[in-house]
Every structure is written in C-alpha cells, then in structure tokens.
Amino acid sequence: MNISPGRLGSFFGGLYTWIVTVFFGAIMLDIVYANLVNEAAPAFSEVSDFLLLLGAFTIPAAIGAIAFSWKSSIARNYFIASLAIILLEFLGPAFFSPLIQDMQDSILPTIVRIIISGLASILAFIGLHKLYR
Prior knowledge:
Blueprint: H1 5-36, H2 41-68, H3 73-102, H4 108-132
Helix pairs in contact: 1-2, 1-4, 2-3, 3-4
C-alpha cells in the first residue's frame, strides 16, 4: 500500500482542523454550562478533563498537519499560527493566573477564551482550504 505525502497531508490537515473545531465547540459548551449551572462543580472537573484530553490530541495532530503540508508554505504557515494560538490557550493561564483571578467576576476572560479558540479554529480551516488548493 503506497500512501503519498499529499494524502497524509490531507488526512492530518483535516484531522487537525476537525479536532481544533471540536475543541472550540467544547470550550463554548464549557462556558455556557459554567454560566448556567452554578452547583455543578463535580461536572466541571469532567469537562476540564475532556478538554485536556482533546488538547492532548490537538497538538500531535497539528504537528502532523504542519509536517505533511510542508510543501505548501501558505497552508503550513496557517497551521503553525493555529498551533501557536492553541499553545497560548494552554500556557496563558499559567502566566496570567493572578490577573485571571482578579478578573473573576468580569466577562473579559471569557471573551478572550472564545476569541483565542475561535481564531485557532478559523486559522486551521484557512490552512486546510489552502492545502486543498
């Protein structure tokens, strides 16, 4: 069975785009669920575990998409930008946790979280589109 690098690029590009979009949807559900249900602390740990598991699949899929789309510099750059934003999402709370805790009653951290996840998803879709062109 002979699998060409172009087919692998399409597979990993599609896989990464799918995972990052599901990740964005899961974050949206987490935000809505956290705002609607106040007494659901045990469920929050399950949702955060799912988000971390999804994030664990996102990063290797992004690396695969970048590696197998290397010949298409435009698609590769969009995948790299999307991965950088996903890494910012994961590492941001570590660097900005005092600021996030101070703004706990504000809606700004929620808006920033939505923008970061949405932007990563949009960049992955653009990268996939450029890969197929």
